[in-house]
Amino acid sequence: MPGRMVGVTRDAAGKEVxxxxxxxREQHIRRDKATxxxxxxxxxxxxxxxxFAVYHGPQGLKHxxxxxxxxxxxxxxxLKRAGHRLHSEKFFDTLKITCSVGVSxxxxxxxxxxxxxxxxxxxxxxxxxxxxxxxxRYHSETNIVRYMKRLENKDISLVHSMIPLGSCTMKLNSxxxxxxxxxxxxxxxxxxxxxDQAEGYQKLFxxxxxxxxxxxxxxxxxxQPNSGAQGEYAGLAAIKAYLNSKGERSRSVCLIPKSAHxxxxxxxxxxxxxxxxVEVDRDGNIDMAHLTALVDKHKANLAAMMITYPxxxxxxxxxxxxxxxxxxxxxxxxxxxxxxMNAQVGLCRPGDYGSDVSHLNLHKTFCIPHGGGxxxxxxxxxxxxxxxxxxxxxxxMYSTNHESSLGTISAAPWGSSAILPISWAYIKMMGSKGLVxxxxxAILNANYMAKRLEEHYKILFRGSKGFVAHEFILDVRxxxxxxxxxxxTWPRGCKIMPTESEDKAEMDRYCDALLGIRQEIADIEExxxxxxxxxLKFEVKESFHQLTECSVCLQMAPHSLACISSSNxxxxxxxxxxxxxxxxxxxxxxxxxxxxxxxxxxxxQHLVCTCPPMEAYESPYEEKRASS
Length: 628
Ligand SMILES: *Cc1c(COP(=O)(O)O)cnc(C)c1O
Description:
628 residues, alpha/beta, Aspartate Aminotransferase, domain 2, Aspartate Aminotransferase, domain 1, 7-stranded mixed β-sheet, globular, disordered C terminus, binds pyridoxal-5'-phosphate, PyrdxlP-dep_Trfase_major, pyridoxal phosphate, oxidoreductase
């Protein structure tokens, strides 16, 4: 199932709201049982396409199609008058002329373009022949800009505060890195120019490949995979192709530690491998005894081990080289998940400490923006003796002519190549010293935050010297277990990754917020706040039962603007505490959640929105309430 499914539900105030009901990240839940490993979902591109449709509306889209087709009709008429023969009388925007030339038109075609084309084909008459001139019926730009801004306002993003998302490195995507992708030289290549003949792009690919080889210690890079997950799949396929080329087809067991990102087991399964899970010890490291036992048991069929370094638990595995040696000594290959390169760039290289293949998440470590799911780039690198990298039937790449070559991984030979200038610019502007400094500051920042929080929260895992890598996990399980706090919706752990982009003041604000929440918890624990109704918790309320027709609890937080400004305020804490709990949260900087706590049960019963008929969308900017 591609993409996401949006349904409706109600919030604590009874307001009808949209709810993301399902998304294709099944690898997070089902791991090696997953049949899809889509993680980076290219949702940004889908949003751009959706905005195009919203802006033009049904009439506008039809108008574009008609305009394009009419232009093609005019051109066809002119060509026939000039004595040319068309391959077919049935066409939409593309004419095939019998001298084996093709012309494709789109809605940007002007009357002058048509005149030029007619002239080229020796037609005397002009595009004045256009039977009807079409009026402009486009929706107004004023409205669409306001509409998009209103949607944007619902989203807390890096323009408001730090996003400490574990693993998913959310660092600065600077304007200077992003600007070039809008330049026409990068963005508006003629669709008929094959990328292998676009000299500028080729030069950029070569330089970026060289730089990424330098960073990783690998010898070859393929830019074909569009995400980390796809890179994993491609990398494992490369390992399989390599093993096959050595006549070791029976090797199919893939060892993966419990701490691995959900995509790892999903990719291994999809690449046709059998997943064996390796235990981790109390400090979050790979359990060496268990690993040795597993390797021993499966050595005849061992294909690969997938490792993440530093691990997703936020520790630099001290035995990483030993692990790699153990796998190699038993005939296996090492796949190193490179999503955490932000803690390594310039400090250490997978190719040096024993890995054979990795993906890099250019949309994490190398600055491509990926909020909301993409677009991604997950190039893979590998060490000799190879190359066993993706090939492509149209452009010559790493085509090995080898019977065990792994073939094509995605449709485009260099993946989402239009966003590669971002990573190229980041590397060039940082330089080698800057890249090392970024890794150092990323690690320093995480350790600073861990230090500030350690007296109030338990830091789940640390290295043997007491430090964390570039991210760490707060243990919130104790709160889940306490009876007075039981009804809170606690996550299992709270991951924090500040990256090098945040300054001390912002990290302090984030720590203050977490310490403030810890204080509210203590107030409940020690009886200073009502244990049933307080700014954190929810309570079962009769009226709410009736409202939603199911047994749902009323949660006090989050406090929306509607909730704070409502005329009925019957809670035992103040509005001020609810809205501005800390000194730095001021009216001018406060991010207001657009809704209160949502009713998940009602949402599960209304998984999809049903669309009103097309005519109902006359004015698409007005947020229509979904009928369900
Ligand atoms: C993000 C991530 C992945 C998957 O990368 P996508 O580009 O999101 O598919 C894999 N492993 C780790 C450790 C990650 O953080």
